[in-house]
UniProtKB/TrEMBL annotation:
InterPro entries: NAD(P)-bd_dom_sf (IPR036291), NmrA-like (IPR008030), NmrA/Isoflavone_reductase-like (IPR051609), PCBER-like (IPR045312). Residues 3-236 form the NmrA-like domain. This is NmrA-like domain-containing protein. The keyword NADP applies. PANTHER family: NMRA-LIKE DOMAIN-CONTAINING PROTEIN-RELATED (PTHR47706:SF9), NMRA-LIKE FAMILY PROTEIN (PTHR47706). Transmembrane segments: none annotated. Pfam families: NmrA (PF05368). GO terms for molecular function: oxidoreductase activity. Keywords: NADP, Oxidoreductase.
């Protein structure tokens, strides 16, 4: 008997990795919920339900009927619309909902104050799911840290083409990150052991490292010295907040780097939470291996 899963937001930054992991396993049947305006292309053998961009409940309920699991990978701008998806899942008789929580530990109050549009809204969705547990809808939320192969250059401070690093403070604070392929595997495997993964956060990583660890691996894998700027983290935060106050979006990646790489803002979630890597049968990899695979593309 196969597990029927429908993925919302499958055309985004993470969605196709989850779809691929499920689609490659004969124990799952995958369907996609897509916005009518979406230009994303999906494998021809996968059924796609297209609905209005605002996810009208009646249309979504119809798409969700017969599904065992709903996985949401919608973007930040659509986070609050997940409540409509959750209500539709309940009405359609879906058994489990996985929200678009993937990323940092949104429960961290310090980080939430800095980027409420990214943290508070996600946390509110999980609280909404908690309130629905007694109605028969289970949930699982994944804390993954940043998607390493994307974030390494986008905001973690490493310019791969110029071989230059921007390091906060001494670069020794450790944080966790996960590749998108590993996230896809974790989501898939969580559905195979529902009794161990229901109604809880799961904390996973591909690597737990510091900026210095990543820089050392980059130097080793490229065979070059790399240039480095060591900058004051608090000054970087001040500049980022000033940018945002003036509507300059460059402040967001600067704050994301701070939240990830400075201890106390949730980037170090595996220092205070138990890793789910083992129960999810995730591969063990070291920093050198992961950086080498990123450099190969």
């Amino acid at each position: 008997m196969t597990i029927k899963v429908i993925v919302a937001g499958a055309g985004g930054n993470l969605g196709h990795h989850i779809v691929s992991a499920l689609d490659d396993d004969h124990r799952f049947t995958v369907t996609i919920l897509a916005r009518a305006s979406s230009k994303s292309k999906f494998p021809s053998h996968i059924t796609v339900h297209r609905v209005d961009d605002y996810y009208p409940e009646l249309e979504v309920v119809e798409a969700f009927k017969g599904q065992d699991v709903v996985i949401s990978t919608v973007t930040t701008g659509a986070i609050q619309r997940q409540k409509t998806l959750i209500d539709a899942a309940l009405k359609a008789g879906v058994g489990r909902f996985i929200p678009s929580e993937f990323g940092h530990d949104t429960r961290n109050g310090n980080a939430s104050k800095m980027l409420p549009q990214m943290y508070q809204q996600k946390r509110e969705v999980v609280e909404y799911l908690r309130a629905k547990q007694n109605d028969g809808l289970e949930w699982t939320a994944f804390v993954t840290g940043p998607f390493l192969e994307v974030a390494i250059e986008n905001f973690l401070g490493f310019n791969l083409s110029q071989q230059h690093a921007t390091i906060l403070n001494e670069g020794s604070d450790r944080w966790s990150a996960t590749t998108r392929a590993t996230v896809g595997l974790a989501v898939k495997n969580s559905l195979l052991i529902p009794e161990k993964t229901s109604n809880r956060y799961l904390f996973i990583d591909t690597v737990t490292a510091s900026q210095n660890d990543v820089l050392l691996a980059l130097r080793k894998m490229t065979g070059t010295e790399w240039g480095v700027d060591y900058v004051d983290a608090e000054e970087q935060k001040r500049v980022a907040i000033e940018h945002l106050s003036k509507g300059r979006l460059i402040g967001i990646p600067m704050l994301m780097r701070y939240i990830t790489c400075v201890r106390g803002y949730g980037g170090d979630y595996l220092d205070y939470e138990t890793s789910a890597n083992e129960i999810l049968s995730l591969p063990v990899r070291n920093v050198d291996e992961v950086i080498a695979s990123i450099l190969k593309g």
